[in-house]
Design goal:
This protein is mainly α. The chain has 13 helices and no strands. α2 (41-53) packs parallel to α4 and α5 runs antiparallel to α6 (114-126).
Length: 282
């Protein structure tokens, strides 16, 4: 991530010596005492790179910000913006990383690093996604930002990674619905549980949670006495996920009560069956 070679390296090295002078004597140099105006854009930029190599992202971000402030029309200033986003992200300063990445996208939308800026912006949300029990607002924002990478920069080197993370974030949202559905199911609040499992089947059917959601619907509907809905959920499960333990559990549950696993009645699951099993979308 270095701009420039040759004589500038010597000037940059001189900056390092000045900043680090006195270390042998036990003197600590505070970054705030440095007069950045004494140095060129390349020297300050290289100081930022040096701090990144030392795993000091906060100090690196400060140097890159000074490049942008003191030399706003230089080539180094443009590069410094994206490097601020990277340094802030390394320091887990996600809001600051987003701000720098968005600034880069706004100022240099056609630049070759715009895709990376959008990817960093998405990561600033994605890397904050925590355990499923927390609020999922960040997950939705991560999905939106990752979609931007995929749709605006499909040929970039970041598109595949963005697609993978999109799928993982999508799966994360489904797992939240499943967690809440299980909570209601354990407390015999079957109607509320159905609502959560239905969201997974209708909105997150491509995730790994769909087989369990269908089985939990079988359990919930049988508990509510809605046999046709339970049979239809079992039929979908048997057609699409016959090799899973969830199908085996639903099969035993339904047949144990004398029911077959086939679409029956007129309900929302019958519509899902018509589309996913029969392929009748219109």
């Amino acid at each position: 991530m270095t701009i420039g070679k040759g004589p500038g390296r010597i000037a940059g090295a001189a900056f390092f010596v000045l900043v680090l002078a006195g270390c042998d004597g036990g003197i600590s140099v505070e970054r705030g005492n440095i007069d950045y105006e004494q140095f060129t854009a390349q020297q300050i930029f290289e100081r930022g790179e040096y701090d990144l190599a030392r795993r000091k992202p906060k100090l690196a971000a400060q140097s890159f910000a000074e490049v942008e402030r003191l030399y706003p029309y230089s080539e180094f200033a443009k590069r410094a913006v994206i490097m601020q986003a990277f340094a802030h992200h390394q320091d887990k300063e996600y809001e600051e990383s987003r701000a720098a990445a968005q600034r880069y996208i706004d100022f240099y939308p056609a630049d070759e690093d715009a895709a990376y800026a959008q990817y960093l912006l998405a990561l600033s949300y994605y890397d904050q996604i925590d355990e499923v029990g927390r609020d999922q607002g960040l997950t939705f924002r991560a999905l939106q930002a990752l979609r931007e990478v995929i749709e605006r920069y499909p040929e970039s080197q970041y598109a595949n990674s963005a697609m993978l993370k999109f799928d993982l974030a999508f799966d994360h949202l489904a797992s939240k619905e499943m967690e809440i559905g299980r909570f209601y199911l354990k407390r015999d609040n079957f109607a509320a549980a159905v609502n959560r499992f239905r969201v997974v089947v209708e909105d997150f059917q491509t995730t790994s949670h769909t087989p369990e959601a269908l089985h939990r619907l079988v359990e919930s509907y049988l508990s509510l006495g809605l046999v046709n809905e339970a049979r239809t959920a079992g039929a979908i499960l048997g057609y699409n996920f016959r090799g899973t333990d969830w199908y085996e559990d639903s099969y035993k549950l339904l047949t144990g009560q004398g029911h077959t696993l086939e679409a029956a009645g007129d309900n929302w699951l019958r519509e899902v069956y018509r589309q996913t099993v029969l392929g009748q979308w219109l």
